[in-house]
Amino acid sequence: MKSRKLKMGMVGGGLTGFIGAIHLRAALMENKIELVCGCFSSKPEVSKESGRFYNLPDNRIYSSYQEMFAREIALPEEERMDFVVIVTPNNHHFEPAMLALDNGMHVVVDKPMTFSLEEAKILQQKVTETGLILAVTHVYAGYPAVKEMKTRITAGELGKLRRIYVEYPQGWLAERIEIESGNNAGWRTDPKLSGKAGCMGDIGTHAWHLCEYISGLKVKEMCAELNTFVPGRPIDDDGTAMMRMEQGVKALLAASQIAIGNANNISIRVYGEKGSLKWVQEDPNKLFFNTSHTPEQIIYIGGDYPYLSQRAQWNIRTPGGHPEGFIEAFANIYRNFALTVAAHKAGEHPTAEMLDFPDVNDGVRGMQFIETIVKAGWNDDTKWVSWVE
Amino acid sequence: MKSRKLKMGMVGGGLTGFIGAIHLRAALMENKIELVCGCFSSKPEVSKESGRFYNLPDNRIYSSYQEMFAREIALPEEERMDFVVIVTPNNHHFEPAMLALDNGMHVVVDKPMTFSLEEAKILQQKVTETGLILAVTHVYAGYPAVKEMKTRITAGELGKLRRIYVEYPQGWLAERIEIESGNNAGWRTDPKLSGKAGCMGDIGTHAWHLCEYISGLKVKEMCAELNTFVPGRPIDDDGTAMMRMEQGVKALLAASQIAIGNANNISIRVYGEKGSLKWVQEDPNKLFFNTSHTPEQIIYIGGDYPYLSQRAQWNIRTPGGHPEGFIEAFANIYRNFALTVAAHKAGEHPTAEMLDFPDVNDGVRGMQFIETIVKAGWNDDTKWVSWVE
Amino acid sequence: MKSRKLKMGMVGGGLTGFIGAIHLRAALMENKIELVCGCFSSKPEVSKESGRFYNLPDNRIYSSYQEMFAREIALPEEERMDFVVIVTPNNHHFEPAMLALDNGMHVVVDKPMTFSLEEAKILQQKVTETGLILAVTHVYAGYPAVKEMKTRITAGELGKLRRIYVEYPQGWLAERIEIESGNNAGWRTDPKLSGKAGCMGDIGTHAWHLCEYISGLKVKEMCAELNTFVPGRPIDDDGTAMMRMEQGVKALLAASQIAIGNANNISIRVYGEKGSLKWVQEDPNKLFFNTSHTPEQIIYIGGDYPYLSQRAQWNIRTPGGHPEGFIEAFANIYRNFALTVAAHKAGEHPTAEMLDFPDVNDGVRGMQFIETIVKAGWNDDTKWVSWVE
Amino acid sequence: MKSRKLKMGMVGGGLTGFIGAIHLRAALMENKIELVCGCFSSKPEVSKESGRFYNLPDNRIYSSYQEMFAREIALPEEERMDFVVIVTPNNHHFEPAMLALDNGMHVVVDKPMTFSLEEAKILQQKVTETGLILAVTHVYAGYPAVKEMKTRITAGELGKLRRIYVEYPQGWLAERIEIESGNNAGWRTDPKLSGKAGCMGDIGTHAWHLCEYISGLKVKEMCAELNTFVPGRPIDDDGTAMMRMEQGVKALLAASQIAIGNANNISIRVYGEKGSLKWVQEDPNKLFFNTSHTPEQIIYIGGDYPYLSQRAQWNIRTPGGHPEGFIEAFANIYRNFALTVAAHKAGEHPTAEMLDFPDVNDGVRGMQFIETIVKAGWNDDTKWVSWVE
């Protein structure tokens, strides 16, 4: 009997990076997805070694993604991969994603979705045409506390929004480590591989996405400054942006990769006319909620807390006090994606909870964010730059 | 081709509790284990529904564990389960564990290992006789920060130890919720199902285990007081113990289930002649390290931190700042257990890192802890009670 | 015109210690007290130097407290000291306090109030006979957050109390520094100067007082263990006690001076049938308040917070977010004492807020605490020891 | 015999505000200053009541500051005030300060120093001409942790600086409370009384000063946006600025008075090539210190910590773990000012530690900050505005 599990193929994600194994664990955790094949590296021997480590049979470990799609599509439908996850450098997102869609396979792709905005728009059109599902792993949107925050803001608990602070400081690129091997800095600081932005492409996009996802509002204009602090680096490693959003909301975005002492310290604070909410990723299972003239509330995340919204509960696995983390946030994106794909296969409508993952439209806006902040951030003359469509 | 993955069967863990799904995710995450069968509840319809939810075919969903072992052992070796995980109330740990071992299957069992110390000793003897592997899920020993703490203490970074504070406050039993349905309180507060101790069996054992695991020292004597604060409850829901350990170390253990505002707030602080270390489970990816006359150090947990020990690194999945949590701690126990079983099957010696999971001897000492603290804690006459062997 | 300020004389508190200057700042801050004279050390030259540093004229700097009282009483009433503050080692509290009272002067004395319980009772009788005012500086009772906590507990916000954890870990005596000069360890670890208890006299008394003050309940029985971890030290430097209080409340007290990494980390957590409150001195301007099934509340301390009680507000100086600390807690004791003395001088009744400072009865109970814990803590045979009256 | 204490007169600071009493406590705490006279309000009856509460004789309580200076200068030198502290709304700083200097009296004035930059420059010239001492109470520069941070940065512990984040969020003006009485919002939101800026004048100046004080670098250019979120308010209540400082350092300043849930949450983070330091005012007695590849250090503030600099130690009153706060930070400014004045009177040179308080030059730069941020912040056309001299 055929397993009901979705069958996943992987492009990239070999043992030499860390993010592939994270995606894999997140995908597997819910017992709704199984890894059936992959091309884990552009180097065949690394791909082979990685696939074997992941317990794949040799005949499902491929040397190129082109080979993978060609060979998989030839398998009986109950054996072949249902979707691909793409965890390569940015310049290798577009082609395998297009090829997957052309072969009728769904796609999960790491962020930023593509190398350029042009690619993003083509991909968006392809998704529309094929009706297939594409998820972009803006992982922070997968945290249950973020879901709770979004739900409360949507429900008006803060009143009309006014001010947002979102930031993502890191310190790991404070030195020019990209000229050494053995780390993940190389392609991220090379514009030919990562695209127009460095810091802003890698982590600024996360901060921007969190800001729009939680508030439900879009950025309209931006005044920014990008910086390269490390000599010799050909791309931004730091930057700030004042952002004007819909409904008069003002947001301040700061991202840096030279902020020594910060690992992945993304946080967001949202202030409205009636109250505020704050979330910090490195301590992810709580929200700080304030209204005027009352004690501060710490809203803890846990399956047994009756005060949490349905949207948050749907994305929680443990009772209070048993921390969930980064892999579970990824797993929420994979689980919701898998349920949506399953509904699609069954000809059913996915629920709003199932559809709650970043999709191709988020991916396009992410590329527009990069275009806009690069345009605004390296320009001393024009103060306010409109969102680049 | 046969998958290299270990095949897991499950006893208990149906959808009505939460802990079964936690075990399952932890087991699956590393792609080294697959769920192949289970008897998820003593109610056949719950078992059936749970198994289907877990994507099992109907012919591998059983109505009793006796049926499960009988049917599985009849399957070809490459199909049948390799080990069982037992996540039932305490009074149903012993029989399925014994039956599994008798059928040549390895065992993972939740803590406390058995209903009584007598059962524990029989199980210990059976494990010895069969040479099979048994793991007890004292989950807190699975956290990488705990591994780091143990490693540093073993290496003498604190000097000779003096004083330990370990505590596990919870608040969920502050009211007599066990008389209502729909929660996990029922069997935990019923001595016929949970054994001699309530609070001390459920969470006191965790605190005790953390204390002995991290320090590498054993408790010798105990002076204790157990309490039942909630009227009508026939078992302890709170207690404290002063414990005299090997080498003159004094430990203070406090556990409570009526401490409103605490979810699973287990923490441990260890003081030696030269320094101290502190860990708090609800914020699990850091250690506080102090020596005299120097600033406090926060030792963060992350795969990219060069100052962490090999033992900790072995149990880390993410780079710094991307929190791991409760499920990953469980996953470390499952992963190390699985690697040990695989080595066993291959006739190889597992490494020290693989063997780093709580085993049947921890299980026996856990039952002795319960015996000792019950003897000491309800007794106003004798101050110091020796460890019950 | 005579100033309306109270005139203070000082015994002890010279420049070689730190606590004298703390008392002085606390006394002066509210402009209700002025320093007019003192005998700051048993060494005349240190007394002289200290007095001059404190801007006293030479004729009000004395070489002995006997001389001070004799000379001051001979001054016109509008010039002479109104009260004395005694900040000497414990063995020199009793005599100057008695002499002050005999001369009609009020007294502020550091804790523990005396060297022995016998002295304490004599002093209590003398206070009663003279009708004069005596304050004991159990400083932690002076924090506004502690006042808020007491008020809420008294008002029943936690329901009937069940369990208290109070602890005071320090690390500064982890080595035998008392054999060197230049620190405050000498007399504190010498039973001839400090009394029967070391750690428990110096800081255990603070923890005990906080426990009784906040709960409004008295300790009835104690089961304890005292320890001396540092070789050669003739007195306890660590200990724990399980305490049975009125109304069935169980308290756990832990104090240590060998807990490296802790400075003055006194904290208290109180659990009742309906909720809990927690306070930590090193972060003193907040309370953590929990009831079942609701988010945690952080109750911040600030003059502009409408949800705070009158008792707390009376003891607050700054708006929220501008931290008050240790000196202000002392200042609350001095301010309330001064207002009580002023009312006494004016023949008026002080208000309940004015009388809210530790008095001679707290001092006597503090000495009984020391007697009880020493009796219980060095005794392996008797489990429960009744409070020593 | 004349007391060696400095004699203080007060302008403003009556009982209806809170800041006067804060200044008074800070001034008195060290026993180096005494309050001898004052004009506490423009309303004579409030001035009278306040002066009596502060224990002044009626003949030293004045109805106007003009009367105060005229009457005091007529007193014998050993009786009359030595300096004035001015704690009035901003539009009443300049005249009493000028009059004090004209009468040979030193000055302490709250920030911002004056109503306009023009006034500030005149005052600066007057101070230069008279050789008298003027302090501006940028209180956050008085915290010992800030002193430690400045010292370490000056010593190069962070390497060359790159990036600074400084912010001061408050929430108390989220509603238009200035139209009600009984709060301090009225004059702060009225441009006729507070000057060109609201939020930026009241708290933005603090953030800016902290940034320049700690880094030792000056702002050169600014790109800013000011906002008024509360309808009807005629002045900014929120704003952000990207600031280019000397040596290529980029600073981001955010201040807000509509950020509900924040009281006085000023914080600063400074990143250099080698490390970083972070300080948060609401938990003021610690610094977070990071270098690459090492555990985080928490540098606690306490008189007994050998790793602290001389500059910090000079400004510490308590041992570690006994928190100092806002009033002590003020007291450091008063103490250093008083010692400088005393040296001036004695014809001696004050030490560098004594001179470590914000002076008239800080005051002028503070007014330039306001000019610059108002010019930049309400202008959508020009991106970068040069510092207004």
TrEMBL record, chains A, B, C, D:
Gene3D superfamilies: Dihydrodipicolinate Reductase, domain 2, NAD(P)-binding Rossmann-like Domain. InterPro entries: Gfo/Idh/MocA-like_OxRdtase_N, Gfo/Idh/MocA_oxidoreduct, GFO_IDH_MocA-like_dom, NAD(P)-bd_dom_sf. It holds the Pfam family GFO_IDH_MocA. It comes from the Bacteria. Residues 147-277 form the GFO/IDH/MocA-like oxidoreductase domain. Residues 7-138 form the Gfo/Idh/MocA-like oxidoreductase N-terminal domain. This is Gfo/Idh/MocA family oxidoreductase.
